[in-house]
Amino acid sequence: MLFLAFASAASAQQQQLPVIQLTAGMHLVRAEVAADFSTRMQGLMHRESLAPNGGMLFVFDEAATHCMWMKNTLIPLSVAFVEANGTIINIADMQPHSEQPHCALAPAVFALEMTRGWFAQRGVKAGMKLGGLERFAARR
Fold first, then answer.
1. Which residue, 114, 66, 62, is CA-closest to 130?
2. Measured between alpha carbons, how far is 134 from 139 in angstroms, rounded to an integer?
3. What is the mean pLDDT of the chain?
């Protein structure tokens, strides 16, 4: 019973995250925003699926070579590490339940997680820019 209460509370927290619309080339992304320590730590843990163009945008406090892992994450994901100006630094595919780190190859301010293969299937690659991140420029 306690587990169900915890799962419901975690689910409610995830549902309350702000959502932003981004563009990757001609593709639209509807990303939940994880912009503080607790939401970044929770990330997409315990989720069973993502919407076809749904993902999570991690907004970091500073540009650094941030790393991501998949502890307690049920679905395979790809992560794009992104500079403050929206340029994708690198993209990595990640396995569910893995604690293997996947890191930015240069200082990143954002990371966008999508269903594994989403970027490759749409021809989105390192060097391309994501649109819609301008609202975070004032925070820098």
1. 114
2. 10
3. 89
Distance from the first to the final alpha carbon of the chain: 44
Among the listed residues 131, 117, 39, 125, the one whose alpha carbon sits nearest the alpha carbon of residue 76: 117
Q: Which residues pair with 34 in a beta bridge?
A: 58
Q: Distance of CA 65 to CAs 52, 81, 83, 89, 90, Å? A: 28, 9, 10, 10, 11
Arch. (CATH architecture) of 18-139: Sandwich (2.60)
**What is the pTM (predicted TM-score) of this model?**
0.87
Which of 72, 76, 78, 77 is closest to 91 using CA atoms? 78
- Amino acid (one-letter) located at 115: T
C-alpha dihedral sign at 21, 87, 104, 76: positive
Please provide the DSSP assignment of 42-69 as one string: HTTTT-----TTEEEEEEEEEEE--EE-
* Domain spans in the chain, listed from the N-terminal domain onward: 18-139
Residue 135: per-residue pLDDT: 82
Asked if 80 and 45 count as a contact pair (C-beta separation under 8 A), the reply is: no
